[in-house]
């Protein structure tokens, strides 16, 4: 999918910690180093792996410690994301793909942005429409956008879920006008917390996450799809949240102190190289026609 290499090697075997407990295999391209799930479930079967009340982006409820921390981190990240987008873009139309319960779009709407959302989960979509008062639809096709009309498109921890990610990237290039920006947030497989937790790293999130990018493989991916990276911004809070989830995967309990220690360590390593943070926001602009 990234470099057209044909040879792969086994990378890591992990399990679905959230829903089924099933084992899954990650493989690595011998040419470019891109890591991906192989084999993957059939597209028609993927939905059942999202059927959990613990899948946080689809709910605003729950009072477990992890759910409460998730909502706190989400509130901080909403303000962080708004500042990043608002400073980088001239315009006021935003499409958020995989918008969940619509909290981020509601924040943009309060700041006089014209908002559009896409969310396949019915419960989350209904919450966005009814509680947050933002218009969210089931698929991108339901919006019927004209070409070159949007100022901003965002995918916050969404692209790794998309079966044909390259096709989506090419399609989005037709919707965004020439000066528009595409923001994509992704877990970083080259981060220090990924190295620490290995098969227990929560951001693998198999089989929901199909693609596992490092900054180098993501750069190759977007360039081949007709985009260029104009900025990379760390998501520092993710190191703590991912470490907390990973601790639970590893030991069966939420070891807060150890998670904070490993989150700090990951962020310290990230400061030495901005591309080693746990999660990264990539700011993209259209470049050329995609290869192939």
Task: Give a nutshell description of this structure.
34% of the residues lie in helices and 23% in strands. The chain has 292 residues and is α/β, with parallel strands linked by helices.
List keywords for this structure.
11 strands, 292 residues, 4-stranded antiparallel sheet, Rossmann fold, 7-stranded mixed sheet, alpha/beta
Low-pLDDT stretches are: none
Mean pLDDT: 92
SSE string, helix = H, strand = E? EEEHEHEHEEHEHEHEHHE
Can you give the helix content as a percent range? 25-40%
Question: Over the alpha carbons, how many angstroms does the gyration radius reach?
Answer: 18 Å
CATH level 1 class label: Alpha Beta
Principal-axis shape:
globular
* Biggest pleated sheet: 7 strands, mixed
Strand content: 15-25%
The count of β-strands is 11
At the fourth level of CATH, the homologous superfamily is: Vaccinia Virus protein VP39
